[in-house]
Amino acid sequence: MASGDGGPYQRTVITIFSLWNTMMGTTLLAIPWTIAQAGFTLGIFLTLFMAALDFYTCSLIVRMAQAMREKQIDNKVQVVEFSDVCRYFVGPKFAKATTIISLITLLTAAIAYWILMSGFLFEIGVSIREFSADNATAFNIPQLNSSISATPKLTAFDSIWTKKITPLLLVAVVFPLTLFKTPTFFTKLNSAGVVSIFYVIALVAVKAAEWGLNFNFCKDPTLKDFSLRFPALTGTMTLGFFLHNAVIAMLNPSNPATRIRDLGIGYILVLITYLYIGLGIFMTFPQNKGTIEDNFLKNFPSSDVVAFVARCGLLLQMITTFPLLIYITRLQFVRSLLGKDDTLLFWRILLGAVIITIGVLMAIFFPNLGTVLRISGSLSGLAFAFTLPCVVYLAYLRREGKATHSVVWSHVLIIAFGFVNFLLQFLI
């Protein structure tokens, strides 16, 4: 069977796995924290709600892309990005605005990556120091990090290896990688990053079995069914289920008849993974639930071998993914907006230097991953997950004469939700 591009359709299993792998990003490590912020019952409900809402708006993009293909009888116009759909149904100015918003989304993702990579590198260095020490007990079961633990005696290593140094050290490794003209090498290498995700899934099972169930509302007053800090979850989970600016390209090789179904299965698998990790850590965490970090690996001490391996794998995965973010940013900014040749060395150096500089400054002076994730997630959601898909869909319905009042108002409510979700991030 031939695809729209003349080749065979991509197998359903490959499509679903790609969707699952793509959505598994930095949010994966923040899920237990988001549930702690929202409360147990409300956290589960809002996670389900955000998955359903993001899936619906993402399916609108897929449906509009298919409608555009059906309108293009001569098949001269290729549908590659969501901006192509916006250009067709709304206009070129709207398509340019879509590209600008996408660039903002990519920049915030790059910042989150740099904060995480810097933290991982710092903890890895500390672990290596501890493992190599004469009195190291690396293979004993370590205790969780605790804010009330005694302050350790500072050494010469501690004065040199700091959280303000590791963001700078990363530059020497990562910046040269951003200068590649094409991302082919990193695309192939990054596909192995799924091993890190499976390792994190296994890590949760091991730690949950080690800790046992620690979930009793009567004995633990810090446990809550709901909390007014729930916007931390809705903002973060918008990013966790965010696929909107890549879904067309990812589903292009697949069978048009099964695209919505495959997308739905992909979202269900992501939802199950998030709930497994979030509830697995939250319900077994042996300390105050409010002490769960926005990156739950930070709750494990540097001497924990299992956590050390996870940090190494995730750091390697992010180092191979970061150049891809830079490449996509360069492609959209230089080629799409400026109409220039993005392969020129000048643009490769300039874009890489600017984005990395912003990432370094944020990692040094504001390394708050949870805040970056929820604000960037709510901003991305406001634009790409809620506003743009609904606007394009309503424009399509108006063309077809199917824009009923109930349909219009239901999609206006989705846009309003995205706007409120963004504003609430600044009130908690």
Automatic annotation (TrEMBL):
Keyword vocabulary terms for this entry: Amino-acid transport, Disulfide bond, Endosome, Glycoprotein, Lysosome, Membrane, Metal-binding, Sodium, Transmembrane, Transmembrane helix, Transport
Lineage: Eukaryota, Metazoa, Ecdysozoa, Tardigrada, Eutardigrada
GO terms of molecular function: L-amino acid transmembrane transporter activity; metal ion binding
Topology in the lipid bilayer: Multi-pass membrane protein
Domain of life of the native organism: Eukaryota
Transmembrane segments: 12-36, 42-62, 97-116, 160-180, 192-209, 229-251, 263-285, 305-328, 349-369, 375-396, 408-427
Amino acid transporter transmembrane domain location: 14-423
Family, per entry: Belongs to the amino acid/polyamine transporter 2 family. SLC38A9 subfamily.
Localisation: Late endosome membrane; Lysosome membrane
Organism expressing this protein natively: Hypsibius exemplaris
Keyword hit for Disulfide bond: yes
Name this polypeptide is given: Sodium-coupled neutral amino acid transporter 9
Alphabetized PANTHER family for the sequence: AMINO ACID TRANSPORTER, NEUTRAL AMINO ACID TRANSPORTER 9
Transmembrane helix is among the record's keywords: yes
GO CC terms of this entry: late endosome membrane; lysosomal membrane
Pfam families: Aa_trans
